[in-house]
Write a structure and sequence with these properties.
Structural class of chain A: alpha/beta
CATH class of the largest domain in chain A: Alpha Beta
Oligomer: homodimer
Strand content of chain A: 15-25%
Number of helices of chain A: 11
CATH topology of the largest domain in chain A: Rossmann fold
Radius of gyration of chain A: 22 Å
Shape of chain A: elongated
Order of helices and strands of chain A: EHEHEHEHEHEEHEHEEHHHH
Number of strands of chain A: 10
CATH superfamily of the largest domain in chain A: NAD(P)-binding Rossmann-like Domain
Chain lengths: 287, 287
């Protein structure tokens, strides 16, 4: 493959940004990688692992010479991070991100760009329990979905180059509108998180005759609440930035939960069996 | 250990009943084990694995000589199974079970017994994806909780013997009232099941612009819906036989889910962070 960008600046060289850096380097898709961070500790690891060529805590230094900027910090910090860099960026810089909501990001970031710049939103649906530059690995995205969400003003050439970059990771790259992405992820990712966290919250202090009920749960309770251990700040931000779609997803869940509740209250065995069967079919379909 | 019962008759020699048989035999806690089933196939496996000495499809034959009867079929079949055996049971027979609801079982079974008999309810909180006599294993209950739920009329001596039998499996045996058991399990087991199944049901046919949303879920969706693949008939029966406690648990969940929903709608970052933190603390506590 040939060079796509001369300088990639990654803001937040963590699991996602660091893993992408490994692929970009291996295939020679970028000449130089700069890492922008808040503290030296993680950047030191990124340098020592060869993920980046230069580490900096300074937005201006990170911006200079970057024809590709990748925002890989928590989503709500994107606007301030980008705003600090824009004055120092080359005029045709492409800005991309790896955030898990897309419409909000487009709405917030595009007004910050100069007219000659272009934003191309991306959401790599990949993650692990681990984080930071030390956790980065080249195979993280293999066979995972990476959603590219061009806006009305994204430069088509820039979109192509970003897709080429991500395809090199072995991911399944797919294109869709930002609001379609957000509606899908609200259902497939944000809803399960809230359901798991609400279940964990409900049981947090639930005692029966002096016994903590959750202690009597087995593998089912553990599986169903596993993702409730995810970082609260990250999920707060997702809820704040994908509010409308999440509200719709919660309403969908409430409707179906209500059908189970009605069937329990009515002691309706046929309805219960049908509902549990519907759930089982869906579960078998996702594998 | 010394002999507790001369003849144990297990109705339904599956994962739970079969595993208990292995322990009872190993420690010489029963002299003879009879298996009652509906079809020969599973009983043949039970005989060939040495779980039982005699296999029968006949309730009368299974009943004769049994000073301990263990009901290990689906809960809602307990009354008819026991009723068919009672006329042929010795007068002091102890009847026990392994069902996952307890108050309903006590209420249904005790009226069927002769005054000299005694019922001792038990719920071993253990399970695997597998089932049947072929899946039985001696270590299934090691370090698992086994809840013994004596009723007002359970014979204290019989309760002791049942507890001794279960302790031999390496389980943590605990005693509580049937309705306390049911309230705890409604929260720790039945609620997660309904939450997982309702989530799976909600997403079963949910498309966004022609794409099936659930296909874009990652590990989080898979974990959270894993137990939705459980047998619908079993969960229908649990919902029908532990209705009141499950209704309470669903209400508890609805309250907390509503707090998440209110915070999303209000865009209340502080409330969201606190809610996700509460969920995370609970999840870390169950490990």
């Amino acid at each position: 493959m040939s060079i796509l960008f001369r300088q990639l600046t990654i803001c937040g060289v963590g699991l996602i940004g660091g893993s992408l850096a490994l692929t970009a380097r291996k295939h020679g898709l970028v000449e130089r990688i700069v890492g922008l961070g808040r503290t030296p500790a993680n950047l030191d690891i990124a340098v020592s692992r060869g993920l980046i060529d230069l580490a900096t805590l300074d937005a201006a230094q990170a911006a200079r010479g970057a024809d590709l900027v990748m925002l890989a910090t928590p989503v709500m910090t994107f606007p301030s991070t980008l705003a600090a860099m824009v004055p120092y960026l080359p005029r045709d810089t492409v800005v991309t991100d790896v955030g898990s909501v897309k419409r909000w990001v487009v709405e917030q970031l595009e007004p910050l760009l100069k007219p000659s710049m272009s934003f191309v939103g991306v959401h790599p649906i990949a993650g692990k329990e681990t984080s930071g530059a030390g956790a980065a690995e080249e195979t993280l995205f293999a066979n995972r979905r990476v959603i590219v969400t061009p806006s009305a003003t994204s430069n088509p050439g820039a979109v192509e180059k970003i897709e080429t970059l991500w395809r090199a990771t072995g991911a399944r790259v797919e294109r869709m509108a930002p609001q379609v992405h957000d509606a899908i992820l609200a259902r497939a990712s944000h809803l399960p998180q809230i359901v798991a966290s609400a279940l964990a919250s409900a049981l947090a202090e639930e005692n029966v005759e002096g016994r903590w009920a959750a202690e009597f749960g087995a593998g089912g309770l553990r599986d169903t609440t596993r993702i409730a251990a995810s970082p609260p700040e990250m999920w707060r931000d997702i809820c704040l930035t994908n509010r409308d779609a999440i509200e719709q997803a919660l309403k969908l869940y409430r409707d179906w939960s209500g059908r189970f509740e009605d069937a329990v209250r009515a002691g309706d065995g046929d309805a219960l069996k049908q509902l549990f069967e519907r759930g089982r079919r869906m579960r078998e379909r996702i594998g």
